Amino acid sequence: MGRRIQFRRGPEATRLQTVLGNGEPGFSTDTKQLYVGDGETLGGVPVLMSKFIEVAAPSVAACGARHLFQAVTTLQLPDEAQNGTTLSVMLSPHAGATQELPARVLAPVSKTISDDEGNADTEYHMTISGIERTFIFIDGGWQIWR
Predict the structure, then answer these.
(1) What predicted TM-score, i.e. pTM, was given to this entire model?
(2) Which pLDDT value is given to residue 1?
(3) Which residues form the Major tropism determinant N-terminal domain (predicted)?
């Protein structure tokens, strides 16, 4: 039988105050997100997850995670992240979003979400299901890749 490997795990608040050793895995029990330490970064570096986090009520996005809107609601981007951190968002066909009532990804307070054409806004509207959008944290702000 193989050996059992244990991950450092605990609430998000504790993870954000912990430097994981180089290569050390950590798991946030609040966000269900995996992180790997680099020996320097508080909380470690997020690992892109293959499973979607379902968003059915106003929520805060988890770095490195994939989010699936199951209802017309909001998803708040984190205020801070390590440069180059990504997260993705998709709209379920059952969410019921329309042009008049979209699912919304919100920029952190006093910040914007920019695109590759230089446009910036405080929120990104999702009305078309099945298209996964990637957000990346660069130079202190969130950008969307289309």
Answers:
(1) 0.77
(2) 64
(3) 5-41
pLDDT in tens, 39-88: 998 888 888 777 899 999 999 999 989 999 999 999 999 998 889 999 99
Phi then psi for 12, rounded to 5 degrees?
A: -55, -40
**Parallel, antiparallel or unpaired: strands 123-126 and 103-106:** antiparallel
Q: How far is CA 125 from CA 38, 92, 109, 120, 121, in A?
A: 34, 14, 17, 13, 10
Q: Closest Cα partner for 89 from 54, 42, 39, 37?
A: 54
* Tokens 């050996």, located at residue: 3
Give pLDDT tens digits for 4-36.
877 899 998 998 899 999 999 999 998 888 889
Here the tokens at position 48 are 């892109």
Q: How many Cβ atoms from other residues are within 10 Å of residue 139's Cβ?
A: 6
Report CA 72 to chain centroid distance, whole Å.
Answer: 18
52 and 14 Cβ atoms separated by less than 8 Å = no
Domains of the chain: 1-47 (2.10.10.30), 48-145 (2.60.120.640)
